[in-house]
Amino acid sequence: MPSTALAGIRVLDLSRILAAPLATQMLADLGAEVIKIERPGSGDDSRTYGPPFAPGPEGDRTDTAAFYLSCNRNKRSVTVNHASTEGQELIRALAARSDVLVENFRTGTLAKYGLDHESLRALNPRLVYLSVTGFGQTGPYADRPGYDGIFQAMSGMMSVSGHPEEPMKVGVSMIDILTGLYASTAVLAALRHRDATGEGQFIDLSLLDCGLASLSHFAMNYLVSGEVPQRRGNGGYGGIPSQAFPCKDRPIFLVAGNDKQFAAFCAAADRTDLLQDERFATTSARIAHREEILPVLEAILRTRTRDEWLTVLDAHDVPAGPYNEMPEVFADPQIQHRGMLIEVEDPASGQLPMLANPIRFTATPVEGYAPAPALGEHTAEVLTSLAGVTQRQLAALRDRGVV
């Protein structure tokens, strides 16, 4: 079973693609009942975002993309056509019995169907209503569509990522992922407020806002100094060294974030003479003389293999790690010990590998996972139990394409 931390919380999930579905998956992992509303016949767009697609039990492939599986576990799928009058009534009936509603339609879309916050608040004043959009509910760009890469470019994330001569987006959909985390935190805070006051509220969350907020110390450095941050490739903005270095064979990432760690590195490298150089003796001095010290460190690191360096640096308590490709990540003994790779029984695929939730509770652990649901798998169960639909009515709704 998922964690019981949010047991008793019902989430009506009208979201698609990645950012908002990640938020509702987090809530589901933490024990909330999440009912995912999908379009009849096609469902969430991300079901088709393959290849790769989930494998079938006989080695063939299913029609469900791995992308969809990454952010929809522990949910129940209900198909409802929200553009139909009857479909809108069904969603309103479910919203009246839910604690949270999450949607990521373009600004103003759901108001056309009477499914906006103000309309549903009249039915359920305790409802926490989260809207995730590209640019937010207000402002000159509020009506624009957008995707992760656009927000990485506009928020400044690309301006600080990549090599000096070329800005580059982060490989994963980082702003979607960060927005999902902001969203789940916002919902939990709103639920706390609701439980204290009896009142729900509207949460306006913008991917562009979240992308900018995630720049953190990069943005703060600029605001304090007025200096535009420079792209440093695999180099960091903290202490020196804090970046990838080539070794005799393969690279490592090395961080000596304070003077004690730098002294330990110098001892490991048998170069304690560097500590006598006033340009390198302190963290601030090393940052100021970055261009002088980095070639020295690169020359030192090239003298041994990656594994030799990792062994000696570990012995001297210097933070360092290998550059891993995906097979090495999942073969890493620490990753295996932490149980980050799990398998779930999936009706369509058999044993399906999956990433575990990284949160470790003592009292309310996440102890099991349900696979992402098949399209409409729970339509009958949910609508008959929560929306008062009879089996005869359900059949008629199916005939009319409402569900």
TrEMBL record:
Database matches in PANTHER family: SUCCINATE--HYDROXYMETHYLGLUTARATE COA-TRANSFERASE
Gene3D superfamilies (UniProt xref): Crotonobetainyl-coa:carnitine coa-transferase, domain 1, formyl-coa transferase, domain 3
Record key words, sorted: Transferase
Enzyme class: transferase
Protein's UniProt name: CoA transferase
EC number of this enzyme: 2.8.3.-
Keyword Transmembrane helix: no
GO MF: transferase activity
Residues making up the signal peptide according to the UniProt record: none
Keyword Transferase among UniProt keywords: yes
Taxonomic lineage of the native organism: Bacteria, Bacillati, Actinomycetota, Actinomycetes, Kitasatosporales
